[in-house]
Amino acid sequence: MSDDAIDEDAPIFAIAAAAELAGMHAQTLRQYDRLGLVVPGRTQGGSRRYSLRHIRQLREVARMSAEGISLPAITRILELENEVAGLRREKRELEQRLRDELQQRPGARVFAAGATGAVVTLRHGARVRRATEIVLYRRPTDPAPADEPRATPPR
């Protein structure tokens, strides 16, 4: 994080300042806290402290309420938005892990079975000759499923 960046989750605003920034009465913020709608951080003494993210949520609640959406519905909308945000974060993290994993591999190698049964390494993009037989190994005690095609000898 750079020196100019602002931590949007830092609980820095007292209830009076948060109410003014959100354009609401402090009692409304207390009610939203009791309902679990917008739950601020707390100091060691128990005072509420709001972050910039909380202020944005309060403004969003006010907008939805003005449009006639009930408080239980707003609560559900906010829960779903938080869940979506979490899933997006998780998706980004998984995509980054996948990119990191792919970069650590020196190059994917492809293998094929030669006519004698030896393992043959193929270059990326190389084709296997038609005369090469590929056989799926199965232990002798395991019967092949009826719908699985059987390997046929080369022509």
From TrEMBL:
UniProt keyword Coiled coil, yes or no: yes
TM region positions: none
Range of residues in the leader sequence: none
Pfam families: MerR_1 (PF13411)
Metal-binding as UniProt keyword: no
Domain HTH merR-type: 15-80
One Gene Ontology term of the molecular function aspect: DNA binding
Residue runs in coiled coils: 77-104
Record keywords, A-Z: Coiled coil, DNA-binding
PANTHER family reported in the protein's UniProt record: HTH-TYPE TRANSCRIPTIONAL REGULATOR YFMP, REDOX-CYCLING DRUG-SENSING TRANSCRIPTIONAL ACTIVATOR SOXR
UniProt protein name: Transcriptional regulator
